[in-house]
Amino acid sequence: VIQKRVKIHGGPKAVSRQLNDFLSSLKTPTRIMPYSTVRSVSLVIDYKEKDESWSTVFSDPLPLATCLPLQIFDAIRAMCNLRSLTLIIDKLNERQESLFYGLLQNIKIQAEYLQISASDRITRRVLENSPQLQALHLPETIDITKFEPVVGRLRRLCAVVGPVKSSGRIQFPTINEVNLIRIASRYQNLEELVLHTVYENYGDEDSAVMFAFEKNFAKAINVFRSMPGLKRLAINIDEDTARTFGNTSVQEDRFYIDRLLRLATCLPRLVQIGITNDMDRYWTVTKTSYGELTIGRGAFSFQDVGFPESVNERFY
Question: Which residue has the higher pLDDT, 40 or 304?
């Protein structure tokens, strides 16, 4: 029983040192304590065959006392205040994946934002064990429709909408009507939707591509209208498609701006809209509280995060 109030203050290192000294005076184990302060972390997990053990690289910064690292599974359990988790699991062979899958069985992940890069099997188990999940960012190799029964209520989603087979030669996965309908009906509470695409070589005449795109774009708008809570939307339209409407850089820029304004007009509830292409460029339109529209454009750098590329804002 602590008989008096203890004040701990200063910078992160000073606080960590004072906390360790205080816990040592109580003869309390300190290994697990620092992890409870972690709110955002990125983990890269690998398996070392030589040592037959899991190797983990933590993002910086973590509390000073993590110089006594826990095993990865104990560390995740100890992060009771975790809000943002990026989990990258390097390629595992069949035996390693089965082992990892089994070890995940009894782990509850408290994160509200999750970005994960792993096999479908591991991804499914992690999603099953994330009851607090509100925002999900999946890589371009994974189709969200595979995990519909697992993922529950989401406020934000960044994912791929894969093409539907037998829907014709010309397909625009990011605005595919069939899969968009599935997402819209499943995630009625979505406030933010960021859609990646799977690029394809259409190999058709420009007029055919233009007609197919406009048809799919109109259908996608109708689906977005059916999502009552949607406030922020980002889609991807590849440069080849844009250039079928005009070859010059000015014409390409006008193509993206016109589509932004069309979305803003047809979807008045949206306060921010973004379009990205496959050349790391983006166009955005933001609506003020007075209804005024502000247009932005630029190029992504390696460090760029957040809308319209991710959904991790304010989860730190």
Answer: 40
Buried b (16+ CB within 10 A) or exposed e, 203-239: eeeeeebeebbeebbeebeebbeebeebbbbbbbbbe
Q: Please report whether residue 296 resides in a domain.
A: yes
Handedness of CA 187, 305, 54, 65 (dihedral sign): negative
Q: Other CB atoms closer than 10 Å to residue 119's CB: what's the count?
A: 16
Range of the domain at 249: 134-316
0.85 surpassed by pTM? no
Asked whether residue 152 is assigned to any structural domain, the reply reads: yes
pLDDT value of position 33 = 52
- Count CB atoms within 10 A of the CB of residue 6: 9
As beta bridge partners, residue 299 has: 281
Rounded to 5 degrees, φ, ψ at 72 are -55, -40
| Counted domains in the chain | 1
Ranges of H-type helices in 158-268: 177-186, 206-225, 239-243, 249-266
